[in-house]
Amino acid sequence: MPRVRLSSVANKVLRPAGLELRRVPHPVPAAAPAPAAEGDEKGARETKRFKRSLHFRHLVGLIDDVRGAIVECGVGAGKSMFLLATMTEGGRHPRTLWGFDSFQGLPAATPEDEAETMTRKLRAGKFAHSEDDVRAYLVSYGMDEAKVAERIVLVPGYFPDSFEQYDGGPIALLHLDVDLYQSYKDCLEFFEPLVVPGGVVAFDEYRSPQWPGAAKSIDEYYGGPPPGAQTSPHWNRWFLVK
Fold it and tell me: pTM for the whole thing?
């Protein structure tokens, strides 16, 4: 006997009334983990993971009715790419996810990054994850290999030379996690004009004391604090709705 999904049956009744039961696209814990005790590194990681998940779910919810691709600059190990991919699977609009990264770690810092006081943190090559490592991460966390190949385009190379590989389509969500002054400058100048009205631009390092070059570059691009910039209700991250 074929298996019948209750949601499918219910939706046959609800859809004529403009209603629909929708699958939750990514499992987020039902409740926040208990606050980590001092020195509890595992608890701190779980809390950070929980907040990150809620933050990206919020961003994805903001673009539910917005057509366009998701572009991430600064893929790292692929953690946020995984969240964005799973949270938009089966969504209202089909989305291609583009990931731009050197996959060789950070480029050289500039004076705007105050590199002279942060030599170890800003050394070139830090945070390197290969393209193969990222794809393996996505699969190991439950993404089907075929879906990775179908929906995710990883573009290796240093900015801005790699940007010419983008297809030029409209962007619904631009997620910038690129740490450094020049990287933010390159990404904003190329991709921000492609973000559609109602789309979201999210900054991972804005106003972070660890990455002073990020705020300098962002404020320079917008001629001051980005208009409408706000902090996430779930995590200490900034974004704006264009």
Answer: 0.84
